[in-house]
Design a protein that fits this description.
It is a single chain. With about 190 residues, the protein is of the alpha+beta class. The chain has a single domain, classed as Hypothetical upf0131 protein ytfp (Roll), CATH 3.10.490.20. The protein is built from 3 helices and 11 strands, in the order αβαβββββββββαβ. Strands 7-4-11-9-10 form a 5-stranded mixed β-sheet, with no helix packed on it. Strands 1-3-8-2 form a 4-stranded mixed β-sheet. The longest helix is centred in the N-terminal third of the chain and has 21 residues. One of its GO terms (cellular component) is dynein complex. This is Dynein heavy chain C-terminal domain-containing protein. GO terms for molecular function: dynein intermediate chain binding; dynein light intermediate chain binding. One of its GO terms (biological process) is microtubule-based movement.
Length: about 190
């Protein structure tokens, strides 16, 4: 049997499968959603590449010159009714090793005994000739499952790795790396 990567027990896996089917059925029935459930995709990298391709075609640019900028939204999924003009809104990620402070708009320490927290909606904004910010961000990897390993793909990345997003912080990269902070598409329960 072939399926998307998951560490869930069977009952949770079936519930997750039904949620994925409902997400895709809603897309078919109601049109393109304002916010995409990134965890619901079998291969989220292809969706993100498609987002960049749409921008590159509309802007008449080479896709090789386009990168993502990231903006964490204050609005919830329910409040975001319209799609952005450029890029896409994504949700469904969980932070491991830290939490998002919506008031301060940055990463902060986890509460005691809090392993995972829900991440706010992220706006993936395609930008031509993007230069990464010099400081004030943590380059946070997104993984499909809690297992931060997989077979190496042709890109040299793990098949479990999706993309890295830049999250605002007042701490150093090293601080969050030591805590193993990452965004996860699907938990194991």
């Amino acid at each position: 049997m072939q399926a998307y990567p998951s560490l869930k027990p069977l009952s949770s896996w079936v519930m997750d499968l039904l949620q994925r089917i409902n997400f895709l059925q809603g897309w078919i029935s109601d049109g393109i959603p304002a916010v995409f459930w990134i965890s619901g995709f079998f291969f989220p990298q292809a969706f993100l590449t498609g987002t960049m391709q749409n921008f590159a075609r509309r802007s008449v640019l080479s896709i090789d010159t386009v990168g993502f900028d990231f903006q964490v939204m204050k609005e919830s999924v329910e409040e975001l009714k319209e799609r952005p003009d450029m890029g896409c809104y994504i949700h469904g990620l969980f932070l491991e090793g830290a939490r998002w402070d919506g008031q301060a708009g940055q990463l902060i320490e986890s509460r005691p005994k809090e392993l995972y927290t829900e991440m706010a909606v992220i706006w993936m904004v395609p930008v031509p000739n993007r230069k990464p910010p010099p400081s004030g961000v943590y380059v946070c990897p997104i993984y499909k499952t809690l297992t931060r390993a997989g077979t190496l793909s042709t890109t040299g990345h793990s098949t479990n790795y999706v993309i890295a997003v830049e999250l605002p912080t007042d701490r150093t990269q090293r601080h969050w790396i030591k805590r193993g902070v990452a965004l996860i598409c699907a938990l194991d329960y």
